[in-house]
């Protein structure tokens, strides 16, 4: 099973005074062409599709064009909301989208409702855990008021469902800050009771965790070696703290035994960020040449 893991598109975001929608459009065009060229079975988008809960019109139009293009190409997508998204707005039209292979998992009730895809080695269950605000979901999940508790409860629902279906390979998309991850300046803090992270161990037993929220691409150490936890990172830089990131998406492959291999595919960088030092007059004199 081969799929692309991406996250944190933040459609509609600006970098200081610069409108990024054109750069985001370039990335999404590249993503579609790459998915076709690599003959992937799916694309997993791990949250923060939009930059704010009420996105600008051009961001909505860009997402609409993008999912329509993936549907036309016959490439399934599994999408979850992040802490910047409004889950109700993101899942609007979800039942209709699902008929075209665009699967939005934006509510607790669908945490244990997988997208099941098959390859020569059998079935793979793709599950989605949207960003969970503990105060909003702890009652429904029977959990305590912490990110660790609500994520653990959601993960347990998935384990029970996967076992009932006989799914030996499971991919879980989640939008969360996992302990050990390295943050940057452009991520909104997610804290309840002073604790905004959760340990990797809550995802014990899954094959691959497609994580979103942290903008730097990274793998998080897991106490369970059979489970791989990775952040794809954002596809473009949203602050100067990200200037040294190697922006990318992850091309992930699962073999029949559930072993994971991955390759980072560098994304297009239309406008690189860099830090320069010097006297103002000297920097202005060289600006046009750079």
Short description:
By secondary structure, the protein is of the alpha/beta class. The chain has helices at 21-37, 57-73, 87-90, 94-98, 134-141, 147-165, 280-287; strands spanning 2-6, 14-15, 18-19, 42-46, 77-80, 102-104, 115-119, 122-129, 169-175, 177-178, 197-198, 208-212, 218-220, 228-231, 248-254, 260-266. Helix 1 runs parallel beside helix 2 and helix 5 packs across helix 6 (147-165).
Describe the global form: globular
Major sheet summary line: 6 strands, mixed
Structural class: alpha/beta
Within the largest sheet, what's the order of strands?
A: 6-5-4-1-15-16
**Treating each run of at least 4 consecutive H or I residues as one helix, how many helices?**
7
């Amino acid at each position: 099973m081969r799929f692309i893991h991406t996250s944190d598109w933040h459609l509609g975001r600006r970098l200081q005074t610069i409108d990024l929608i054109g750069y985001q459009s370039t990335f999404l065009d590249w993503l579609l062409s790459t998915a076709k060229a690599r003959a992937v079975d799916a694309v997993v988008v791990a949250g923060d599709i939009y930059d704010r809960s009420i996105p600008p019109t051009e961001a909505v139009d860009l997402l609409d064009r993008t999912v329509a293009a993936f549907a036309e190409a016959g490439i399934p997508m599994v999408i979850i909301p992040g802490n910047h998204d409004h889950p109700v707005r993101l899942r609007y039209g979800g039942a209709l989208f699902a008929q075209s292979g665009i699967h939005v998992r934006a509510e607790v009730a669908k945490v244990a409702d997988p997208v099941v895809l098959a390859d020569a080695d059998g079935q793979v269950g793709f599950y989605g855990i949207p960003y969970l605000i503990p105060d909003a979901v702890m009652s429904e999940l029977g959990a305590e008021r912490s990110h660790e508790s609500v994520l653990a409860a959601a993960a347990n629902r998935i384990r029970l469902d996967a076992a009932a279906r006989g799914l030996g390979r499971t991919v879980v998309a989640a939008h969360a800050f996992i302990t050990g991850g390295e943050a940057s300046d452009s991520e909104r803090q997610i804290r309840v009771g002073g604790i905004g992270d959760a340990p990797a161990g809550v995802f014990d037993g899954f094959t691959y965790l497609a994580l979103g929220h942290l903008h730097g691409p990274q793998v998080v150490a897991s106490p369970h070696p059979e489970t791989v936890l990775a952040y794809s990172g954002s596809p473009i830089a949203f602050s100067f703290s990200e200037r040294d990131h190697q922006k990318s998406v992850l091309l992930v492959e699962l073999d029949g035994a559930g072993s994971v291999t991955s390759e980072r595919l560098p994304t297009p960088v239309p406008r690189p960020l860099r830090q320069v030092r010097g006297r103002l007059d000297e920097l202005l004199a060289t600006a046009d040449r750079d």
